[in-house]
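Repro case for the chain-ordering regression, as requested:
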Amino acid sequence: MTNQNQLKLSPQAEAIQQKLVQLIQEKIRNSDTKEIGFDDFVNMALYEPQLGYYQNNLRTFGEQGDFITAPEMGNLFAHGIAKSIKDALSEAGMSILEIGAGSGQLATDLLLTFNNENLKYLILEPSATLQSLQNETIKTQADKFYQQVTWLNNLPENFEGIIIANEVMDAIPCQMIQKQEDKQDGWHYLNVGLDEGGGFVWQAGEAVELSSLPAALQSEDYPADYMTELRPWLSGWIKGLSKCLKKGAVLLFDYGYGQSEYYHSQRLKGTLQCFSRHTKNDNPFQLVGLQDITAHVDFTQVIETAHNEGFDIEGYTTQAGFLIENGILDQQAAVDEKQQYMMSQQIQKLTTQGQMGEIIKVIGLSKQMTADLKGFDLQCQLHRL
Ligand SMILES: C[S@@+](CC[C@H](N)C(=O)[O-])C[C@H]1O[C@@H](n2cnc3c(N)ncnc32)[C@H](O)[C@@H]1O
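-- result from build under test --
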């Protein structure tokens, strides 16, 4: 586990952390109950303008940053997506909308892969800092297509095309809940309060309404103190996608499981993780604004909401299954020996079982489409939701 004391922070990082901690402390002190929900804490830690982890201008993505996502490993992830959506994109009208585009690498690689001047590429990105990074990445690596890219502040209406989001749902703030010591008393929220020195601490909050819990948590017998996450805002986010999409398809990639695996009674501490300099830890109260805070996605919640919102379900599978079916292994045949070596490392990272290849899932949704999204037949996992 990374300890804040082991990391040498730059004066800029120290200053950001100090300001952000003060702001959150003020919010807690000003609240009636002297506590805030964990989702409010994460929202400020990640998205507070200029200071939050995704809003400040300290490096986040890639080898120099805190974590590596699939598009940062090379262009094979984009090639797989391009193959999957090719037919659907033609049918729905040559527009891609990427939500939460990070460094802009996936946008760049998709523009280069399609190499099509009729392709419109829209990006919805809440972070001004990341918007300018995306701008720079696309301009530097795919200048020819730069004019085809538009940044949006809100989801468009009546969108016709393909929506893509990689590792966005897990960045939507979650709430924490805990099974009470006396199991008859059900569950309570774990909120964030302050200790005597002003440090952030978990604080038992109000009881959780049983009917608001996922079915698994209502019925199973969980040990006292079992902790896990709820992400009520995710359902609203999917509703938003449904309202936005008139005709086309959606591809969502993220770390996660179906409900029975997610809320397994032996997963005692849930799935909350923090990342800093490629090191994982489980303490969201350190390195505030300087580390990513994430929890896995409950894909049963995603698919149930999508179904209720009128989406057709194209499929659900692992990242490895999706990329292999979309020809990731064939890419090596077209390059020389040195590139083959580099590519084999990339393929290994993207498809390794027990890691990214298996824990990252992809879900495909569509509306009013006849063309299929490719990649969901080889390792269909719908039965696990
Ligand atoms: C873990 S990063 C993933 C970035 C990129 N997709 C990748 O794969 O490298 C999460 C991204 O989602 C964005 N994000 C978080 N919440 C969002 C929301 N509600 N709507 C749109 N983007 C969001 C963040 O600003 C960031 O760009």
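Ordering looks correct now. The longest strand covers residues 245-257.
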